[in-house]
Amino acid sequence: MERILIVDDDSGIRSELVSIVSSPGREIIEASDGSEALQVLESEMFDLILSDVRMPGMDGFELLAEIRQRWTNLPVIIITAFASTDTAVQALRGGAYDYITKPFSIDDIRNIVSHALEANRLFNEVSYLKGRLGERYSMDNIIGQCPAMQKVFDTIMRVAKAPCNILITGESGTGKDLAAQAIHEYSSRSQNHLVTIDCGSIPEGLLESELFGHVKGAFTGAVSEKEGLVQSANGGTIFLDEIGDMPLSLQVKLLRLIQNRHVQKVGSTKREQVDVRILAATNANLAEKVRNKQFREDLFYRLNVVEIHLPPLRSRGGDVLLLMSYFLKRYSEALGREVCKVDESVKRAFGKYPWPGNVRELENAVERAVTLCDGSLIRLEDIPGNIAQWQNESGAVSGTLSERVDHFEKQCLIGAMEAEEFHAAGAAERLGISLATLYRKLKKFDIPVASTGIVEVERSNTGQTQFTRGLKR
Ligand SMILES: Nc1ncnc2c1ncn2[C@@H]1O[C@H](COP(=O)(O)OP(=O)(O)OP(=O)(O)O)[C@@H](O)[C@H]1O
């Protein structure tokens, strides 16, 4: 399905354009000025924009400049009132794909629109194939427009080519794995392997021989010599996922690898040189583990030369709806469905739900909805009940002004505490208030802090929040 956005303050011209460019397999959306167009662009994906120049508020040229900055490859056709060479030149210099002058001929518009869509389709195909050739991943796979994600992309681009080790932090499902793939892909090591090891899922006894290999007879069952994963990544990158779960005994050996660039197989006295770049990821608070002596401080500093933090999805604002559109397109294509519209109630629920499972949870919800939905529209009944309940979240807040303010304040506090894994100092900084004020507010709303144990948050279908304190996650 091709999607076109028509931007014009004159509703008569918009309708005329809609009827000219409409055809089966195309969805046309309208916006009455530049700002409205930007709002739509922030939450939905398009293949082409047709915009008038003269509009009240943000005009067509300002909109074009904004689109060129934020959606670099999205084609824009500018519609100008008179055949003025200056306006046409300004449009093309500003990065427009082409321009159309009023009064327009139906055939001209149809031709230019078909060419622009075809050029866009070819561009996407080439980028996709390039991505496939240079392995499977590129930054194009990581969707995000909010400032925090833009900062992540900037940092990835700046550090990918440097030789330093990088620690990627963030809650589960925020895209740490994707970030590691992008770093490797943009590094000078991309021609060699990226080897991923999930330190949390390999039994402690096996992890050492998996990482460093073993010689024949090193332990029962070691019937032949085996190369470790670190060596198989020689010349490339090794990604140690869930590094916080690495046993202390192995942390010493990893430190030796970082400092001396050699490995020693289990059962061998021989040291073998390797050249690997190390990326590590964790969803635990490693600094806290260092304080609790569960993680070596020297290793922490060696790994944490640069930290890339992936923010929780609930703090990424409009990215939720953008990711929703992205997965919708991806799963509609993958499952051979023509699902292209999402009911407003679903968008409301997605926008308000706090996404404790982050992007992974959102991706699963969209995949499920595309699979279940009957026809081309995703309705509330196609998404999981615990998410659907949130469409009326704000409607549920009633009462006096002070009760509503309290509700809002409590949600902000819970969000900040969750983002900081219930450590008060970080949450106070995030909210721009003193620690003493934060403690007073936490007490008022009965919100726990991490010093009372690990805190798990559970939200009921009605949006109520419950905290469970425990010793282990
Ligand atoms: N910004 C994003 N754009 C598109 N897809 C994303 C994005 N972030 C995450 N995903 C998708 O969400 C899923 C989870 O991402 P990923 O495995 O990278 O998270 P993670 O932080 O490594 O999780 P865990 O800590 O559980 O290993 C994957 O399918 C991934 O492709």
From TrEMBL:
SMART domains: AAA (SM00382), REC (SM00448). GO terms for biological process: phosphorelay signal transduction system; regulation of DNA-templated transcription. GO terms for molecular function: ATP binding; sequence-specific DNA binding. Keywords: ATP-binding, DNA-binding, Nucleotide-binding, Phosphoprotein, Transcription, Transcription regulation, Two-component regulatory system. Residues 142-371 form the Sigma-54 factor interaction domain. The keyword DNA-binding applies. It holds the Pfam family HTH_8. Residues 3-117 form the Response regulatory domain. Gene3D superfamilies: 1.10.8.60, 3.40.50.2300, Homeodomain-like, P-loop containing nucleotide triphosphate hydrolases. SUPFAM superfamilies: CheY-like (SSF52172), Homeodomain-like (SSF46689), P-loop containing nucleoside triphosphate hydrolases (SSF52540). The modification 4-aspartylphosphate is found at residue 52. This is Nitrogen regulation protein NR(I). It comes from Anaerohalosphaera lusitana.
